[in-house]
Design goal:
Length: about 230
Amino acid sequence: MCVVLVHVLMIMCVIFIIGICDSSAVSGYIEAVRELACELLDLVAEGLRVPDTSVFSRLIRDVDSDSILRLNHYPPMPILCKDNDTSSSYNTNRVGFGEHSDPQILTLLRSNDVGGLQISLNDSVWFPVSPDPSAFCVNVGDVLQAMTNGRFLSVRHRALTNSCKSRMSMAYFAAPPLSTKITALPQMLSAVRPSLYRPFTWGDYKKAAYSLRLGDTRLDLFMKRGEELA
Ligand SMILES: O=C(O)CCC(=O)C(=O)O
């Protein structure tokens, strides 16, 4: 079941879509975007040579799927410059949504034409993602990383505010039912690549995620260490 969530995070302000939009338009959007997520996940399974290509999408089509739609609004935040000082940290755009990876399976993110989204491929370098209102940005989530035993990696990202314009984004987070046990698919395991994570349910994972800070690497909590890897 999909729900619309409201999050209030730092300077980010979120509008509640149900109150201002036709709810059938929202349901229609959710249905369409869920179908797209399922098609992409079937292609991922095919690419990984997993015989049951609906192994991921089945979880999202499940009536108890915990998928959600979130709308984000980042009001413009004028850049603060000290007199005659353009080099200091005052002269950087502010973070509207702090760095994190998405915990679910897959995220389909759309935005207006105002940039701000950045991804990080290692600890320190941020790459901007060009805004394109006619395209989706697709993020791998932590659950897909666990199910593929690290073949697909969840991406760390954040969103900066713009100094003059509002950024709006809309993210569909495709998730399994709470009771789903998350383990690596057998095809992702071998003698040289045993399972990297202990099994967990999506419900366990959500609970763990809420006990940590946004930017913490939650999958680390379930990572096998030492003898567990044997
Ligand atoms: O607004 C964005 O581009 C990022 C949103 C995001 O990361 C999220 O909603 O989890």
